[in-house]
């Protein structure tokens, strides 16, 4: 997947969009975005940088704030998060634009779990220009309607666009237990837009111990299926040979 990205990494000074593949995939998209954020914070230049989290506070189908024990479990330092709760979408877009101007916080997150009305080409261009000017990264989690609803196909200036759906994890079996344990989180990731890169689809897993992604093992070690040998109808089997000898 890194080879599909320009210079093999999530570009700085750009907007990156994350879209659930369906309505129920919003938590999975949020989890993948946070794991990707954790990978970025391992860079030396971003180890101590605060993270600005902006969200629309209102009636939505899913919470738009992260679960603090989940953040701690993923290894992300919780005290580094600064949250901004906006009542309206326009207020969140304004907060994102202002946040991208802060050189102290190069990692910005915007989450909209409700209806998207104002985010269009003009709004995304303003955010992209501000991010490019100050070298910040904006992770924008959009609602599923951007992929399957009335907003599908809306043009934006995002550098990358990711479509995420969950996949069943592979169970982990232990010798002293008959019940398998829960495996690594797994997603189906489709990179539908990549400026200067390539698109593609991958099945990824997240390792909480090494803070890294890797391909799911059935895909990473996949081998071409062996050709099955079809029986030759003209071949004489022992049974047909005995029938010929006995005349039956």
Helix and strand arrangement:
Blueprint: E1 14-20, H1 26-40, E2 51-56, H2 68-74, E3 81-86, H3 89-99, E4 107-111, H4 121-134, E5 137-141, H5 145-148, E6 160-167, E7 186-194, E8 200-207, E9 212-215, H6 217-220, H7 238-246
Written overview of the protein:
This protein is an alpha/beta fold. The protein has seven helices and nine strands; from the N terminus they run βαβαβαβαβαββββαα. It has a nine-stranded mixed sheet, sandwiched between helices. Helix 2 links the parallel strand 2 and strand 3. Helix 3 runs parallel beside helix 4. The protein is globular and about 55 Å long. About 5% of the residues have low confidence.
Features:
alpha/beta; single chain; 248 residues
Q: How is the main sheet built?
A: 9 strands, mixed
Low-pLDDT stretches: 233-243
Helicity range: 25-40%
- In order across it, which strands form the biggest sheet? 3-2-4-5-1-6-7-8-9
Mean pLDDT: 82
Number of strands: 9
Indicate the overall shape: globular
- Total of DSSP H or I helical runs spanning 4+ residues: 7
Give the ordered list of helices and strands: EHEHEHEHEHEEEEHH
Radius of gyration over C-alpha positions, nearest whole angstrom: 24 Å
Report the structural category.
alpha/beta
Distance from first to last alpha carbon: 64 Å
Kindly estimate the percentage of residues that lie in beta strands according to DSSP.
Answer: 15-25%
Summarize the structure.
With about 250 residues, the protein is an alpha/beta fold. Helices cover about 25% and strands about 25% of the residues.
